[in-house]
Specification:
- The structure is a single chain.
- The protein contains 15 helices and 17 strands.
- By secondary structure, it is an alpha+beta fold.
- It has a 4-stranded mixed beta sheet. The protein has a 4-stranded mixed beta sheet with strand order 8-15-17-16. A 3-stranded antiparallel beta sheet has the order 1-3-2, with helices on one face.
- Strand 5, helix 7 and strand 6 form a beta-alpha-beta unit.
- Helix 2 runs antiparallel to helix 12 and helix 9 packs across helix 11.
- The longest helix has 26 residues.
- It is elongated.
- It starts with a helix and ends with a helix.
Length: 544
């Protein structure tokens, strides 16, 4: 192997030494240009191009993002004096997915933060007082938006403030402070939670009252309305029903999301009982354990006696002499009577219980609900190659429709019933299999790379042509063919004839008085211009 390499090197060295100096210089210059072009192409294609991923963020957030990207192996660098982050342009999507999966974007709030430092940077010598106040108001809005995200159930918040201006000359400003907020909530907020959010805003802004606060969520639902509260809570019952319906819907979706790709709940037929029922009950218990009677509080005793002897005439009245009717009765004599009575008032422990039935409770017996579940079936064009039965991909997509799921929905109804309190008989569940088509992504040609590779190929071709043309062709050695006897004799006769002719020519050249020499001299003397032209033609032919 070593001998072969040495032989190849020696042949190349011989060819290189056989080249002229100008050709060597040209080859060296061309090789230098080629190497420079190759280096430039590799640099342009392999260098990392950075694209700004986030900007104007807190330093701690940028640090967390950078650690996450470094762990994943994504190239990045810090920009904007440490408040921004740029990543490899080819992996921007991967970086966005990684940061979103780890929840780092949520920690930065909705949109770019506008801090006090930004307000100071934008408040130079030529900045008006109006712009300065607007900058400070924007800082306050950013702070409140970030603070609201600390509440449970609030993912993002966007707060807008209207702050009165006391410094005015010609235009009368807004006389009261107002606040509006849009919340991105993970679940419906309760009445108490909504009220607490409104109170927080009221306490954070000078001059703001509860009546001038309006809060909504991402689903256009009213979270808190100072106008409704100030007018007696118009629509409170509707809002409570809406919140409870959303709560039921959320419970169903959370329960079924691990099983299906999409869940739709139809909860318009949920009924709520707004009738108030008050029940009162008294319970009397003896104060002494083991006793059946209470403690004596009051006791009254009463005794009565009476007696009598024989019948006698009334004093001072004479006896009646007239005869009277007589009846057989008991013989009269002395008599007497006695009576006793008592009353006792006992004391007991008395417990009074008043029960008020909650209004707006879900009526499970009269409520019905419908649930639609969907399960995706993926059809990948790259994997379906050869399985379409002669159909084209477009025809296959047009002919594939949703189909009903062939599963037992009884366990799902039981799960919904136990999670919401509804009767299983009043729950309807339907399921469909939804086709999802994934088209084969065409391999988009990189125009820049194709141009670079084309340029490299052209340079290589030119270099090869230049080298091949610069190497002199070796002269082919003439080989005399073998001659037969007749050819040998013929060649001998021709050689003898040539030698004889050469002797004659030599004799002509030596003979100064020969006729041919005289004719040539005469021609030269008579027509010198023609002789000069013939001489020039002869010289040119020999040069070429």
């Amino acid at each position: 192997m070593r001998e072969r390499l040495l032989a190849v090197w020696n042949r190349l060295l011989e060819r290189w030494n056989a080249l002229e100096k100008n050709r060597r210089i040209g080859i060296i210059a061309f090789a230098a240009v080629f190497l420079l072009a190759l280096g430039a192409a590799l640099y342009l294609n392999l260098r990392v191009r950075y694209e700004v991923l986030v900007d104007n963020r807190d330093l701690t957030v940028i640090s967390d993002m950078q650690n996450a990207l470094n762990d994943e192996g994504i190239r990045n660098r810090v920009v904007s004096n440490g408040r921004g982050l740029a990543v490899d342009q080819k992996r921007v999507v991967d970086a966005q997915v990684l940061i979103a999966r780890q929840g780092l974007l949520e920690n930065t709030g909705a949109g770019n933060n506008f801090t006090y430092m930004d307000a100071l940077n934008f408040s130079g010598m030529g900045t008006t007082e109006t712009i300065k106040r607007e900058n400070m108001k924007k800082v306050k809005e950013t702070e409140l938006s970030e603070a609201l995200r600390l509440f449970d159930g609030i993912n993002k918040a966007n707060v807008n403030l209207t702050i009165p201006d006391d410094n005015y000359f010609f235009v009368k400003p807004v006389d009261t402070a107002r606040a509006s907020a849009v919340l991105s909530v993970a679940r419906p907020l309760t009445k108490t939670e909504s009220l607490q959010v409104a109170r927080f805003l009221c306490a954070s802004v000078k001059g703001l009252t509860m009546d001038n606060i309006e809060i909504s969520d991402q689903n256009y639902n009213v979270v808190y309305s100072g106008l409704q509260e100030s007018t007696g809570g118009a629509g409170t019952q509707y809002d409570q029903e809406l919140l409870r319906k959303n709560d039921v819907e959320m419970k169903i979706k959370v329960s079924l999301s691990p099983l299906f790709d999409a869940v739709t709940v139809i909860n318009d037929n949920l009924k709520f009982n707004w009738d108030k029922l008050t029940e009162t009950s008294d319970t009397l218990t003896p104060p002494v354990s083991g006793s059946e009677t209470g403690v004596i509080i009051k006791e009254d005793l009463e005794k009565q006696t009476s007696s009598s002897t024989g019948n006698a005439a009334a004093p001072g009245v004479g006896a009646n002499d007239q005869a009277t009717n007589t009846y057989q009765t008991q013989t009269g004599g002395a008599s007497g009577s006695a009576s006793n009575s008592s009353s006792t008032e006992y004391g007991y422990n008395r417990t009074q219980k008043v029960t008020v039935a909650a209004s707006g409770a879900l009526d499970p017996a009269n409520s019905t609900i419908g649930v639609m579940v969907y399960r995706n079936r993926i059809y990948d064009q790259a994997l379906m190659a050869g399985k379409l039965g002669g159909q084209t991909w477009d025809d296959f997509k047009a002919g594939t429709r949703e189909t009903a799921l062939n599963i037992d929905f009884a366990p799902i109804k039981d799960l919904i019933s136990k999670g919401t309190g509804l009767t299983a008989a009043n729950i309807s569940v339907y399921g469909y299999e939804v086709p999802v088509f994934v088209d084969a992504a065409p391999q988009a040609a990189n125009t820049r790379q194709l141009a670079m590779f084309g340029l490299l190929g052209l340079l290589l071709l030119l270099l090869a042509i230049f080298v091949i043309r610069g190497v002199p062709k070796p002269e082919a050695a003439e080989t005399e063919p073998e001659l037969a006897v007749e050819d040998l004799l013929e060649s001998t006769r021709m050689e003898e004839a040539k030698q004889a002719e050469a002797v004659k020519l030599k004799e002509i050249e030596l003979d100064k008085d020969s006729e041919a020499k005289k004719m040539i001299e005469k021609f030269v003397n008579e027509r010198p211009e023609a002789v000069a032209q013939l001489l020039r033609n002869w010289l040119n032919d020999n040069w070429e």
